[in-house]
Design brief:
This protein is of the alpha/beta class. It contains 10 helices and 15 strands. Helix 4 links the parallel strand 10 and strand 11. This is Xanthine dehydrogenase accessory factor.
């Protein structure tokens, strides 16, 4: 599954290399019923060709008309759709508001080098913080070693987190994993399920989920994780869960968790330390018991607690701040 943002950046790069000016648009802020999340991208060239999405409808049509009319000649501009928008008659459903960063990019080497860096981040090779000066349009990139909101803004600058499509790697199939897969897909994760057990997968129906019939530990060891991956083990089978944990802590995965009671989790941690040779720092990366304490009992409730904890970590929110 190719990340839509990756398609946008690649097409923008292609147009720029061909000598075409490109308008790169980023959703900065949404309020109310706005269909695209902050950080979503759209690119437009001088011929009115475009790729990506801001709203999936009327906003794109209005924006293309304004580009054709030469309205966005400045290096950078923030445009509002919805309430408070005096330029167009576009009104989003339920009083929604959409703020969009519009960058006017010349077809030069600096722009192309910048887009290539974004491409590498979207491929999972690195994670970047992209800063845009709202007065001059100047752009700066630096490595991102933290988690937090995808978009942050003050009066003078916008900071954008750029990385690969968020991946949810399910180590083994179970009833809880099934709901995690469905919830993860609904939240926009690229979901991959690894399980070599034919009997466990017999009768499993997971539309839109990549299923790999191999040990998750092997998939992880072969490069299946990047810094935007959450690894969760939910089978109660040590051959699946423990081996997945041993490999996951050697990666940059931003979330690693395994299901089990406090007693089971304590025994697993002791086993991973004694048999697997993991140190305190590696063990500290493993969320066990997994998920937020929501009083969950059913598989769906447990899966909800797991995804909620993953979103908490991805957003950079400390557990004690909840």
């Amino acid at each position: 599954m190719q990340h839509l943002d990756l398609q946008v950046v690649r097409q923008a790069l292609k147009w720029s290399v061909e000598g075409q000016r490109v308008w790169l648009c980023t959703v900065l802020f949404t309020y109310g019923s706005a269909p695209r999340a902050p950080g979503s991208l759209l690119a437009v060239n001088g011929q009115g060709q475009w790729v990506g999405s801001l709203s999936g409808g009327c906003v794109e049509d209005d924006f293309l008309e304004r580009v054709a009319a030469g309205e966005f000649a400045d290096p950078v501009r923030v445009v509002r759709y919805g309430e408070g928008d005096e330029r167009s008659n576009i009104r989003l459903p339920c009083g929604g508001i959409l703020d969009v960063l519009v960058e006017n990019l010349a077809a030069d080497c600096d722009v192309q080098a910048h887009l290539r860096e974004l491409e590498s981040a979207l491929l999972g090779q690195r994670r970047l913080l992209r800063e845009v000066n709202l007065e001059t349009g100047a752009r700066h990139l630096r490595d991102d070693h933290s988690h937090g909101p995808r978009v942050e803004r003050d009066q003078a600058h916008v900071q954008l987190r750029v990385g690969a499509a968020q991946r949810l790697l399910l180590a083994g199939y179970s009833s809880v994993a099934h709901f995690c897969a469905e919830f993860g897909k609904g939240l926009g994760f690229e979901v991959i399920l690894c399980d070599p057990r034919e009997e466990a997968l017999d009768g499993a129906v997971l539309d839109g989920i990549e299923i790999r019939r191999e040990l998750p530990s092997i998939f992880i060891a072969n490069g299946g994780c990047h810094a935007d991956t959450a690894v969760v083990a939910l089978t109660h089978d040590p051959k699946i869960d423990d081996l997945a944990m041993l490999e996951a802590v050697r990666t940059e995965a931003f979330y690693i968790g395994v299901m089990g009671s406090r007693t089971t989790s304590a025994k697993r941690m002791e086993r991973l330390q004694r048999v697997g040779g993991l140190g305190e720092a590696e063990l500290a990366r493993i969320h066990a018991p997994i998920g937020l304490n929501l009083g969950s009992k059913t598989p769906a409730e447990i899966a909800l607690a797991v995804l909620a904890d993953i979103l908490r970590v991805r957003s950079g929110i400390a557990r004690e701040s909840l």
